[in-house]
Every structure is written in C-alpha cells, then in structure tokens.
Design brief:
Strand content: 15-25%
Mean pLDDT: 92
Number of helices: 15
Oligomer: single chain
Order of helices and strands: EEEEEHEEHHEHHHEEEHHHHHEHHHEEH
Number of strands: 14
Distance between the termini: 6 Å
Helix content: 25-40%
Radius of gyration: 22 Å
C-alpha cells in the first residue's frame, strides 16, 4: 500500500440497486455517498452526493442502467467529476458487503477465485442476497483488477456462537450434509454497535456484556459477551427471530406443512408469504413504524395489535438474552426504528424493571445522530441509542485487512 492510499470504496450490491460510500480512513470521513436504484429497469436512477471539502451539491441522473457493470461505471464517472476517480492512487481497496459467509468466513477476506466460489456455493441459503453481492464483486474486479477487493460478511461476527446456540435440534447427519445451522445476520451492525456501546460506557469491549437490538425493516437481536457474539435471533436465513417489516420471525415450523396440505400453497408461495407478506405488513398492512404509530394515535386497533405483537416478541428476546448473558451492562437500540422510534424503546423495556431496565422519558424523546444514554442516572443496566454505521465498519475491516499486507496493493 502506498503512503497515500487511504481511501476505501464500500459497495452494497442488491438485486436491483447499488449503494456506495467512499471513505478516507485517515479520519473516517465520507468523501462521497450515493445510490443507484432500479438497475435493469426502464428508468434507473443514480443519486450522488460529494462530501469532500469543496464538493458540490447532490446530483441526480435518470435513464436506463442495464446492469451492475453499467451502474459501477456510472458511479465511477460521478466520482471522477469530484476528483475522486477509481483510478486514483489514493484508493486502497474496495470493500463489499456480503450477506452470507457460512462457517468458512469468520473474518473479512480478500477476494480470489476460491472466495468467489465459496460465496456462490452459499447461494441456496441466501438466494436473494449472495447473487447480487457476487455481481457487484465481479463488476468491481473487472473494472479494477489490480485493486484488492475485500468481502465483509454479515454472518462473520456470529461465528463465535457456541455450538449449543448455533445448532438446531434436528438429525445431526442431515444438518451437516446440508449445512443447516444458525448463522445470524446484520453482523457488521452488531459488531459496530456493541463496540461503540462499550466506548459509551468508557470500557473496553472485553469488559462489557451488551444486548444489541438492530431494529429496521429487517430486525435482529444479539447477545454479546465481552465483544463476542454468543447468541443471535436470525438463523439459517434472516427469517427467524423478531417480528420484522414483512417477515414473520419465529413461527411454528408446522405452519408451513399446514399451509401446504390444507391451503394447497406451493413452497414458493409459502416462502413469499413468510418473507414478504408477513410481519407488520401482514398484521396491519403497513411496515413503516411511523405510519403504525400515527394510526395508533387515531385509535386503529389493527395497528395497535401489530405493535403489541412486535413489542411482545422484542421483550421475550431481551429476557432470554439477559438469561444467556447472566450480567447485562447495556441494552443498545440501533437502526432505523431503534434509533428513531422513542415509543418502541419505551414499550420494549416497560415492565422489565427486574432486569434493571428503564428509560428516562426526557432523554428518550431527544433526537440525535450521536450515541446516547436514555436510562435514568444510576440505572443498574444502561439503555442506550447507538446509531449504526455498517459502511464505516466495512471500510475499517477492509482497510485493516489490506493494511496488514502491503503486497496486496502495488
């Protein structure tokens, strides 16, 4: 790595989208952020915002962008306009979010043919995500074959779970043959937030036990003991666990058999029901927590029931992970709902005073982009709001990896 190679481009490739951020790792500043959406559709859209010193205003372009290769080329053009081109000697690496790394990857990996093959092998357990992640990696490799491409896995943080937490109670031979176990997701967020929570308490992560509640349209909880994940709510896929925007979360597996036998639904129809037509959307028709809270204020009973089911599941996981950890130093709320919905935070800990949990109404009502404590002074267990930053976590892990081996960059 040259002395001046301090920038990392972070790519998050979805099936029809490409999110990106360019960061300078000297101070973790964002030089540019952007999104390409509706890739492959008739009218695609790219929104680019330069944030470097002297950068211009947000720019937007529309028109068909055929595939991820065209999308990344468009991103490269936008960055070049700001003097941040992908050919810059200051670019150290490109970091890619990869949803599923199985047990093979417990840490980020510099992409080579073997790594690509392993990510592709995991497509059956992440059919909505890994193919898109692969597309982004292959596109970036073709555009900059000389530059290290680093895969950062959502599942990696959870590979520290003990076998008794990761294993399902099914026939061992069948489970091993088909790699059926609990992998967990949102790992970069849980890693970042658990570490930032320890910093908020003025302690080293190794000294702190934290329950992290990542509450967005997708939602997951984790129990983190001394900086290591010991349990998490998502499983083989992101369907297990908390009630989510459109996903059911925990459900009796026999529901699927019942729907097949009694309702005549196909496997694909049941899959779509549980992943895309359930959760808050299935319960009340809305998966936006802001809209649900507005409807509750107007007396909407369906919205109230959906909210109550959501909170009930959340409380169960807080209680379960309190038992798993034994000692809980903090409960940290993060992601879109966790960071912004004061009513969710208050309801989630209400009645859990036996665990030392409470929120201060005034502190809880404050809106801020900074980590903050919302529990009363002297509370036995700290309740905190810790905004997540998955892109920064990916950039840090990427830069740390390529920085350990200077032969990775000419």
């Amino acid at each position: 790595m040259t002395e001046h190679a301090t920038r990392v481009l972070v790519l998050n490739s979805g099936s029809s989208s490409l999110k990106y951020q360019l960061l300078d790792m000297r101070d973790s500043s964002r030089l540019a952020v952007g999104l390409v959406e509706r890739i492959g559709e008739r009218t695609s859209r790219l929104v680019h915002t330069p944030r470097a010193s002297g950068g211009g205003d947000r720019r937007e372009r529309t028109g068909r962008i055929a595939d991820h290769a065209a999308a990344l080329e468009a991103v490269a053009d936008e960055l070049a306009q700001d003097g941040l081109g992908l050919d810059s000697p200051e670019l150290a690496a490109i970091g890619h979010r990869v949803v599923h790394g199985g047990l093979e990857f417990s840490a980020p990996a510099v992409v080579d043919d073997r790594v690509l093959a392993e990510i592709e092998r995991l497509v059956p357990v992440a059919p909505l995500h890994n193919p898109a992640n692969l597309s982004g990696i292959r596109t970036a490799r073709a555009l900059r074959p000389d530059l290290p491409q680093v895969a950062v896995f959502d599942t990696a943080f959870h590979t520290t779970m003990p076998e008794y937490a990761a294993r399902y109670a099914i026939d061992t031979a069948t489970a091993d043959a088909h790699r059926i176990r609990r992998y967990g997701f949102h790992g970069t967020s849980h890693a970042y937030v658990s570490r930032r929570t320890a910093e908020l308490l003025g302690k080293d992560p190794s000294e702190v036990n934290v329950i992290v509640l990542h509450l967005g349209n997708g939602a997951s909880a984790s129990a983190v003991a001394g900086g290591r994940c010991v349990d998490t709510s998502m499983g083989l896929t992101p369907l297990e666990g908390l009630v989510m925007g459109t996903r059911s979360g925990d459900i009796d597996p026999a529901v699927t058999f019942h729907l097949r036998r009694v309702a005549g639904m196909s496997v694909d129809e049941i899959d779509e029901l549980l992943n895309k037509k359930s959760g808050l959307a299935g319960l009340c028709g809305d998966n936006d927590m802001r809209e649900i809270l507005r409807r509750i204020e107007e007396g909407d009973e369906r919205a109230r029931l959906a909210f109550d089911i959501y909170i009930h599941r959340l409380k169960k996981y807080i209680g379960a992970y309190s038992a798993v950890l034994g000692r809980v130093d903090a409960v940290a709320f993060t992601a879109g709902v966790g960071e912004n919905a004061a009513a969710v935070r208050e309801a989630a800990v209400a009645g859990l005073e036996m665990f030392g949990l409470a929120v201060d109404t005034g502190r809880n009502a404050v809106r801020s982009g900074e980590p903050r404590i919302i529990s009363p002074d002297g509370a036995r267990t700290v309740v905190a709001v810790v905004p997540t930053d998955e892109e920064l976590e990916i950039a840090r892990q990427t830069f740390a990896l390529v920085g350990t081996d200077r032969t990775l960059i000419a």
